[in-house]
Amino acid sequence: MIKDKKIVVVLPAYNAELTVESTYNEIPFDIVDEVILVDDKSKDKTVEKAKELGIKHIFIHDENKGYGANQKTCYNNALKLGADIVIMLHPDYQYTPKLIHSMAYLIANDVYPVVLGSRILGKGALKGGMPKYKYFFNRILTFSQNILMNQKLSEYHTGFRAFSADVLKKINYNINSDDFVFDNQMLAQIFYAGYEIAEITCPTKYFEEASSINFKRSVKYGMGVLTTSLKYFFNKLKLTKSDIFKPIASEE
User: At what angle do helices 215-236 and 182-192 cross, to 10 degrees?
Assistant: First the structure.
């Protein structure tokens, strides 16, 4: 905990058998209270490896539902555990858990409610081996998104994110896509709700076992990202009304 705030790390896993141990071993348990792993019907022994590591909270999808659906299960269960701060970290060891301290303290000290680990700040992406075509499309998409949403993020596509539970409770992430565009829909919802997002420089590693999507799915993802940004733009102008930007009804 930090300042009596419970910190939960969530690992949305798919075929992470070879990397989850390295990821888990770098998690700073001096502040992290719980770890949740959600397995999206992996074809390898991710679940067995997670059990060997002693991860108590393991949730297994009975079918492959998609990256977005995996995160929904992650966040829903983190909130059920009473998390005050939720750190979403890909278990493919592309991002270092050593930054969890920095990200969590920004939220615990009420500096920012959301923090992203950015591969683009500094030279982490290309230095870490990001394919040049992915770097190029990352920059083009981010430039377009910043214009359409009037923001200044260095990237919208990182798999390392920290959230205040208050933010997760006020955006309707469960209505989002079950696919990869979920990440961008979520950031659009956060900005639409009026929250600020911080970024910290994050080194990254690209290697054979690290997760990645192929070119065809990258194109589909890019189209989904632009569609999300356009929906945000037109909703802000009150020209359209997209369901993803509707606030969650108060239970009071």
Answer: 20
Structure tokens of 38? 């959600």
CATH no. of 7-244: 3.90.550.10
Please, are residues 83 and 8 in contact by the beta-carbon 8 Å criterion?
yes
Amino acid at 5: K
Amino acid code (one letter) for 96: T
Beta strand residue intervals within 119-232, DSSP E: 160-164, 197-201
What's the N-to-C CA distance of the chain in angstroms?
28
In order along its 252 residues, the chain shows pLDDT tens digits of 899 999 999 999 999 999 999 999 999 999 999 999 999 999 999 999 999 999 999 999 999 999 999 999 999 999 999 999 999 999 999 999 999 999 999 999 999 999 999 988 877 667 767 777 778 888 899 999 999 999 999 999 999 999 999 999 999 999 999 999 999 999 999 999 999 999 999 988 765 555 556 667 778 888 999 999 999 999 999 999 999 998 886 543
Alpha carbon distance 215, 40 (integer Å): 21
Domain residue limits, the chain: 7-244
Q: Tell me the pairing of strands 57-60 and 160-164.
A: unpaired
3 φ/ψ angles, rounded to the nearest 5 degrees = 55, 45
